[in-house]
Amino acid sequence: MIRRRLLAALGSVLVLSGCGAVGLSVTPVTVQDFTNELVVPPLAESRVVDGTRIFTLTAKQGRSRFLPGTDTRTWGFDGAHLGPTLRAERGERVAVEVTNALPEPTSVHWHGMHLPARMDGGPHQEIPPGDTWRPEWTVDQPAATLWYHPHPHGVSEEHVYRGLAGMFLIDDDAPVQLPHTYGVDDIPVIVQDKLFDTAGQLELADDGSEPGTLGNVVMANGTVGAYRDVTTERVRLRLLNGSTARTYSLGFTDRRIDLVATDGGLLDAPLSVERVRLAPGERAEIVVALTPGDTTRLRSFPVDLGDVAAPFAMGGNDAFDVLELRAAPELASTPPPSWGPSAHAPNDALDETAVATTRTFELQERTINGQRMDMSRIDEVVTIGHTEMWEVRNALPMPHSFHVHDVQFAIVSIDASPPPPDLAGRKDTVYLEPNRTYRLLMRFDDYPDPATPYMYHCHMLLHEDEGMMGQFVVVLPGMPAAAPAPGVGHGGHHD
Ligand SMILES: [Cu+2]
């Protein structure tokens, strides 16, 4: 079935080539007017009880107006589509009361968060319809742009695609000079592509498309053809690739951008770049400078996917605008981004000479090390306190995006070379160019639990659902792993 899919993708290349459409997009992207004001997800309200900051989220069905005159059935947290932005300080105790008002089980994973496996929201922490799940943990990592999304076994693609996703921002008290007023000069931008059927409903059609569904409409925070009025000389955009399959190359035609943070937080220093490549699950914080009266558009350019077969069938040739920025005639002054070395994760916290265990992961069509996901099989047992090197290789000419739960890793090398500067910060997800070896350095400091696994997987969600995922447990020295039994690992408590 998977081979047929790849062949179908290659077949479509030949068909289009035969039509003289060489080099075109596999999914022609609709040209849009940018006349809809960008929706900024509201900050989630919370209450503090006995020192714990408590959020509530309800996953439910709704209807959204993406296309003129058409109501599209969607899913969202609290509203019809996407969810509010959760925000907490490093060191805070947080809890989230997640209610599932959907007609089927789901789960909510805190992507990029360091926390106990029972609170992680993976496939073992499924929430039945009508149930409420209440994970809690202490935020213990540097300031970063994280996110949350469903992770139910076998159907994550559909649940995210229907609209279940939101941001989770971590703050800390490190002195930084960055735009930081939420919704004013510090704006989340969740980039997603959607495919609509003739009735204006979301279509999840991966027939013949190897990476999964590639949409012909792109939206920012659920807004199609979005514009944003800017009132400051610089604006910070927290970019999240919340798509299920598409990899973007985001930037502007008329200016460079400062890349300031990646998945796990700040880089060593601002990095001037033309574009940033984001695979599904990856984030980047960028600072964009504007002049009074300026109008410019955040654009996704044709993306270098590395040595993939038929890159255009993977969306590699597609290009489209995402968000128009309109600067006011007068702008409040904003200093350039800067921070001292104490603001980002200490570079010596991950020490290659301390590596106790090296593991290798080879990604084939839908397998990792020759195996598909099995909920009852623990693939890797990690000893607490150990620094590990994970050597990850994408062995076939297809795109993949590798995500590890619980930790933020450092990319030590790609083949024999150090990573490019835009990949030198802390990461939890990395695009894997085919036939290259990514060496990922990580450390497992706490939360032993021999019976509840964390996941590592491809974040192209069709691939994940079809089995491209494995499980690891973190144990005390000498502690054996226990096979997870059904129902085990339901962290927090259920009402
Ligand atoms: Cu994949």
TrEMBL record:
<protein>
    <submittedName>
        <fullName>FtsP/CotA-like multicopper oxidase with cupredoxin domain</fullName>
    </submittedName>
</protein>
<keyword id="KW-0732">Signal</keyword>
<feature type="domain" description="Plastocyanin-like">
    <location>
        <begin position="61"/>
        <end position="173"/>
    </location>
</feature>
<feature type="signal peptide">
    <location>
        <begin position="1"/>
        <end position="21"/>
    </location>
</feature>
<dbReference type="Pfam" id="PF07732">
    <property type="entry name" value="Cu-oxidase_3"/>
</dbReference>
<dbReference type="InterPro" id="IPR011707">
    <property type="entry name" value="Cu-oxidase-like_N"/>
</dbReference>
<comment type="similarity">
    <text>Belongs to the multicopper oxidase family.</text>
</comment>
<dbReference type="Pfam" id="PF07731">
    <property type="entry name" value="Cu-oxidase_2"/>
</dbReference>
<dbReference type="InterPro" id="IPR011706">
    <property type="entry name" value="Cu-oxidase_C"/>
</dbReference>
<dbReference type="InterPro" id="IPR002355">
    <property type="entry name" value="Cu_oxidase_Cu_BS"/>
</dbReference>
<feature type="domain" description="Plastocyanin-like">
    <location>
        <begin position="233"/>
        <end position="290"/>
    </location>
</feature>
<dbReference type="InterPro" id="IPR008972">
    <property type="entry name" value="Cupredoxin"/>
</dbReference>
<keyword id="KW-0479">Metal-binding</keyword>
<dbReference type="InterPro" id="IPR001117">
    <property type="entry name" value="Cu-oxidase_2nd"/>
</dbReference>
<dbReference type="InterPro" id="IPR045087">
    <property type="entry name" value="Cu-oxidase_fam"/>
</dbReference>
<feature type="domain" description="Plastocyanin-like">
    <location>
        <begin position="357"/>
        <end position="474"/>
    </location>
</feature>
<keyword id="KW-0560">Oxidoreductase</keyword>
<dbReference type="Pfam" id="PF00394">
    <property type="entry name" value="Cu-oxidase"/>
</dbReference>
